[in-house]
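Hey, resending since the last one bounced:
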Amino acid sequence: MLTKRMLAVLAVAIIAVIALGVFAEDAHAQQSVLERESGIGGLMEGRGLDADRAPETWQVVLGVGSIFVMLAVVKFL
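The structure tokens again:
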């Protein structure tokens, strides 16, 4: 009984993974991004806090605060 149930769960998981793979769309970068950036090094170099893509102050505070909330939830649950 347990082996049949485990095989059924495994089959459902495999079907779900295959369905995600079939129905997921491919990500395509825009040509301007490909010309401007070269690999992960090109994406990260020259990016300071004054860059256009840098997070705002409230976003940084929210991110750091969420770490403390996560620790409290994990500790007390």
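Residues 33 and 43 are 9 Å apart (CA to CA).

Sorry for the duplicate.
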